[in-house]
Amino acid sequence: MIMYQENVILCASSSYEQKYYLNEDFNSLPESIKEELKIMSVLFTEDVGGVLTLEFDEEGNLLFNVSSDEGDLLFDEIGSVLKIKELQRNKEELLESLELFYKVFFLGEEISL
């Protein structure tokens, strides 16, 4: 079991560098899930700008972290909040499955069905 001291990044997308990153610790995810994460993240930053990071906290909750460069007049802060709420609603099943995956395979929790 791997122990982490701080939040663990799942993936990130940057409108500034036009890049997407998936943490190699999650290479075992199915290709369809990895592709969905990529599409979701890249479309988010294309739409509102800035940098989106999806990360797990120490309890295994998946967090959306958005940041922007100081003085970035094109970054849509209000749009980013609305977009996150939309993603949490529309991608609820995916996000819950990722949290469960993390809790079982990274935190070693036992899940009873």
Written description of the protein model:
With 113 residues, the chain is of the alpha+beta class. The chain has one domain. Helices cover 41% and strands 20% of the residues. It has a 4-stranded antiparallel beta sheet with strand order 2-1-3-4. Strand 3 (51-56) and strand 4 form a beta hairpin. Helix 1 packs antiparallel against helix 2 (77-90). The relative contact order is 0.18.
From the structure above, extract its key features.
113 residues, 4 strands, elongated
The amount of helix comes to 40-55%
Structural class given helices, strands, pairing?
alpha+beta
Rg from Cα: 14 Å
Per DSSP E runs of 2 or more residues, the count of β-strands stands at: 4
Low-confidence stretches: none
Order of helices and strands: EEHEEHH
Q: What gross morphology would you assign? A: elongated
Pfam families: DUF6145 (PF19642)
Summed up:
By secondary structure, the chain is an alpha+beta fold.
Topology:
Layout: E1 8-14, E2 19-22, H1 31-48, E3 51-56, E4 62-67, H2 77-90, H3 92-105
Antiparallel strand pairs: 1-2, 1-3, 3-4
